[in-house]
Amino acid sequence: MRGLVFFIALVVVLLIGAMLPYAVTNAYVFYAGFVALQYVVISTGWNILGGYAGYVNFGSGAFVGLGMYAAVFLFKLIAAPLVVQILGAAVAGGVLGLGMGYMTLRIQGVFFSIATLALTVVLNTIIVNWSFVGGARGITVLAPAPTWFPSIVSYVFFAMLVLAVLSIATARWIEKSWIGRGLAALRADEQAAECSGTPTLRLKLFAAAVSGALIASAGAPYPYYASYVEPASAFGLAIALNALAMPLIGGTRSWIGPLIGALLLSGLEQAATVTIPTEVNLLIVGLVLIAFVVAAPDGLLGLLDRKSAKGRVP
Amino acid sequence: MSEPILSVRGVSKRFDTLVAVADVNLDVAHGEKLGIIGPNGSGKTTLINCITGVIRPEEGTIAFEGVDISRMPTYRRARRGIARSFQIPRPFVGMSVLDNLLVPLDYLESGRREIAHACDLLKSVGLEPRAEDPAESLTHLELRKLELARALAAEPRLLIADEVMAGLSEPEIDEVLEILFALNARGVTVIMIEHIMHAIMRFSKRLLCMETGRIIADGTPQEVGRSPEVQKVYFGK
After folding, report:
1. A184, B79: Cβ pair inside 8 Å?
2. CATH of the domain at A137
3. Complex ipTM, two decimals?
């Protein structure tokens, strides 16, 4: 029953998104909406490994950048359409995620997080020295005019909406299934989970690959969106920080947490971008994150849980 | 005697220079009630960890129901029917009590994937009223029971109970003992590691005493209790 309501809600969201380009003429809506949806995909993807399995990945920037450059590469090589670019980015992200998953064999906890941070630096260096995709100068990507949509920005907006819907459906499916239960178990205690028959390595590899594929796919439509990509912004710190902050603010135990966090935080950042100078953005994210870590370590969802628990106990 | 359910041959485990388990040989028969005693640090838990695969011994082989499991990962051993409870309860925090039991039910092929079955298990250890509560809200006794219930969910053929009664009161010990007796009556082989002497004397049909990684006595609880070597370890001389 609940699954049906969820499914219908997703379809409704997609239909509204498909009609929006014809109803709304203000291009800013799509520019801002694209960023918000991109963060929905990134934080939802991040949460599959970081939230469900408890492996905190600081390297989201590497995955998003990988997705962007996979798209650029495919575009330059064979003028691949956007769908193919996204699929290519997802495959590349999945493979990198799998590699990251194998790292969990040797390193856990904070050491794992530090290693993921290094991923961004490594990939950044590779791209800077690879002239085919523009090197350090960056590259201009002129997207062909879309056939079904009035403008390129509404086209990539819709593509990102589809990705967001897919990633949320994936996250919810994982969470509610036996896979989600196994991930929650290994998050609590890997050894005890093994002793209960859970193949922890396989589950971690799966979570890391899916997480990596989703985050990378979120980067793929960006070259069309911005029509210019360069390594410094592609592998920026802001993405890694947001990817971590949004699920933490929303709540990491459920698919809805990253969604709430992404919409809330990117909304706040948009408001800040429009009203105050740009660098204040990161400051806001940082401050909100600190406030939440102190006041609501389990995010908004945890806060709600605690409120309702208080109501039950007289 | 028919083929043993568990056969440990020449197992040794070193931590740097410390020999935690030294060339241990052990056969456990089907349906046995085996107790293992020994001072702290004598290698009991390390031996259990070798059997369940949490750590790999440097030497020796371990066979379960005639199959060499020495190289199997832990989860495969669990699926073959080896279950354990941990010395310090290790619940899956962040999950409900019921979900804690659904983990082994999900992943163990022998387990029935039914919520009803999980509820029956909770009833059998008296945790049913707590099914929906988060695991971290349980009391010490309840955590011990959850630990046992989670081990039982797998319908194991060998249960290793590592100090399940530590820190419990007398009536609580009786309660846990009753669960273990009932389990054994259903044909489950039980290895119990315990410091609470009267409980392990009552439960075991056969008792081992370990000291510095070796088995120094093996026999009925009475025989082991009278063994001069065991008395020397416990009382000094």
Report:
1. no
2. 1.10.3470
3. 0.87
